[in-house]
Amino acid sequence: MEPISPLEQFLHTARALVLADLVAGEVAEADVVSLVEESVVQRRWWVEQWPDGAEYVAGLVAQDVQDALLDRYGRWPLCPVCPSGDPHALDVEPELGPDPHWVCHEAGVKVAAVGALASAVPGGGPTS
After folding, report:
1. pLDDT above 70 covers what percent of the chain?
2. Backbone phi, then psi, for 73, in 5-degree steps?
3. CA distances from residue 3 to 45, 110, 116, 119, 122 in whole angstroms, order as listed
């Protein structure tokens, strides 16, 4: 068996982190997992063009899946920090950088690292 390339390691890590957040939000259905796979395919091409951006892939895949979920199902993940007011989704920060986190801009706080939503979001499924 050949060793996994650094590029593939970044892609596998990104996939695993985003899947963990989808599982935490109880939205890891087959069609949603397919959204992750589509993003990983697109981001593979992207990082092949810009290898220095490999450490940004997890945040980009999270954003891709969040955008696709919004288009098909609704906002995800919902903010667990703001108990009142209109429900709103968390955002990924930095938008293009290492160590991506889910943040609430309304409260101005980091909620969880991408891949660690289970520790912060009870049942954070999508909603319109």
Report:
1. 94
2. -130, -35
3. 20, 35, 27, 32, 37
